[in-house]
Structures are given as structure tokens and as C-alpha cells.
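ok new one. same drill as before - C-alpha cells go in, u give me an amino acid for every spot. 201 of them this time. try not to just spam alanines like last time pls lmao
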């Protein structure tokens, strides 16, 4: 989001405070992190972002069941553009389920589409390398293949082994990829963030 809106360094200076939860089970349990935070009188806008894994609909259904009393207008189906809904108490709530609110997958599924176009030939080689390693007995689970593909590709960048966040900052991953546009639109709408300031001289 730093590529799209003014975003100061430091968690306390950032326009949105991001809390990293301990996975969907903690966030989505009854009276868990999600409902406790949304019920807080200090909160005006809150959002949740989760991996779909292989159960995007089930996770959204759980979110809806937890939040329906606070947000009666929450729709039965997660909109493809992500959820943004307001309630009578002037609170706003949003949901994004990675990668695209409809497909199975994870954050790394989303990030692979930020590999700059034309798609780096190394990306195909990274995928093939992971499959070759699997054939040689690599213990990587099938559910982690997307992670293995991305981190294999990142291992071959300069510098090697950078995190996805650093890769975005260094433009090894393209934050302006068309595949990022829907997420950026959802995030800026939810938190009502203006586009990045520009100075013309």
C-alpha cells in the first residue's frame, strides 16, 4: 500500500494499524479477536484479511455469522471486489479473502501475480524446480507449494532471499500490477485513504 497511498514508517504513524493475528482459528473463534475488536468503542473502521486456503466460502460464512449482529447488512455472499459495509453506529467493516475473494489459495497466490510482466522466465523455472524437488522426496506439503514457488523465485533475486515486503519495495514484485488493483481499491475504500500525494514543480 506504500506504493499507492502516503504511508509513514512506523506502526504508530501508519494510516492503518495492522495487527498480525495467529491464524484464522484465533481470529474467527467465538468472542475471539475479530468480535472483540469490532465491539470496541474506540474502533470506527476494522477489516480482516485471511487466506482462503481451500475454504473461502466457509471462512466468509463464519465471519458473517460472527458479525451479523453488529452489521445486519452484511451480504450472504462475499463480493468479488471485497466487502465494505457500514452500520447504524457509524462503524465500517471490511473483508478480503486471499487471493481474490473467490479462488482457493493464499497470500503467496496473490503475490505470484505481482511478478513483473512479461512473466520472468525464472518464475517458470522456480515452479519446475519445486516440482523436481517434490519428486526427489522434498517434504513440502501440497498446500505449501505456492509458498515454495514464491520463495524459490525470491531466492534468485538480488539480493537473494528478500521478504515479499522488501521485494515490493525494491520492485522485484510489482505493486502496480493490474492484479493488485482490486485489492488496492478495496483497501483504500475501506479505510478512506486518499491517493498518494504528488508534487508538481
Amino acid at each position: 500500500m506504500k506504493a499507492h497511498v502516503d504511508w509513514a514508517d512506523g506502526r504508530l504513524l501508519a494510516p492503518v494499524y495492522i495487527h498480525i493475528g495467529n491464524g484464522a482459528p484465533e481470529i474467527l473463534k467465538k468472542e475471539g479477536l475479530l468480535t472483540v475488536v469490532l465491539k470496541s468503542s474506540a474502533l470506527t473502521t476494522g477489516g480482516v484479511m485471511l487466506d482462503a486456503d481451500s475454504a473461502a466460502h466457509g471462512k466468509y460464512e463464519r465471519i458473517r455469522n460472527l458479525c451479523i449482529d453488529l452489521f445486519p447488512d452484511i451480504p450472504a455472499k462475499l463480493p468479488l471486489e471485497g466487502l465494505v459495509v457500514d452500520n447504524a453506529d457509524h462503524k465500517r467493516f471490511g473483508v478480503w479473502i486471499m487471493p481474490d475473494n473467490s479462488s482457493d489459495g493464499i497470500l503467496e497466490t496473490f503475490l505470484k501475480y505481482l511478478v513483473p510482466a512479461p512473466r520472468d522466465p525464472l518464475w517458470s523455472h522456480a515452479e519446475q524446480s519445486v516440482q523436481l524437488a517434490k519428486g526427489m522426496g522434498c517434504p513440502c506439503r501440497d498446500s505449501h507449494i505456492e509458498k515454495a514457488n514464491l520463495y524459490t523465485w525470491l531466492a534468485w533475486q538480488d539480493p537473494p532471499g528478500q521478504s515479499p515486503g522488501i521485494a515490493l519495495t525494491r520492485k522485484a514484485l510489482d505493486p502496480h500490477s493490474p492484479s493488485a488493483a482490486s485489492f488496492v481499491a478495496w483497501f483504500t475504500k475501506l479505510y478512506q485513504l486518499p491517493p498518494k500525494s504528488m508534487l508538481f514543480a
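The chain has a mean pLDDT of 91. and btw The CA atoms of residues 8 and 14 lie 5 Å apart.
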